[in-house]
Request: fold
Amino acid sequence: MVKISQDGNILKTIDLDFSPIRVRIDRSDSSVWTTGRINERDFSRIGDEWPDTLDELNDLVKTNTGTFTRKYDSEGNLIFEISKGGYSIELDPSDGSAWIAGKKTIWHYSANGRNFASYSGVSDGQKWLAIVPGKN
Reply:
């Protein structure tokens, strides 16, 4: 992740150990929410000769996968991590809460990482979220 000033100067670079699928900025405090996947593959069991087929390769390679969501402060310091994550994230400007769309589930988390609710039975495919402000 890279923090860039308004005049285009790189202020800070943050190395991530995962691939964010979506990133959102909370305008109230400039914190950064990310949701995504980790997909690490360990090729140490493969010798000089590579397998002939992809199936053989997959049998030899240990894969660590998972989804999660992270919140960073405006300087890129990790505030917390949530063990749920997925395809999309939107922030509710009224309370700073986050709505996260994952595989077959949508989660609603408070600005400090407390789970408000989980909604299952949604589609298995990629999801997009939108926050519609309520009337005061």
User: Anything to note?
Assistant: The chain has a mean pLDDT of 86. The helical segments are 54-60. The beta strands are 2-4, 10-13, 19-26, 31-42, 62-72, 78-82, 88-91, 98-101, 105-109, 115-120. The longest strand covers residues 31-42.
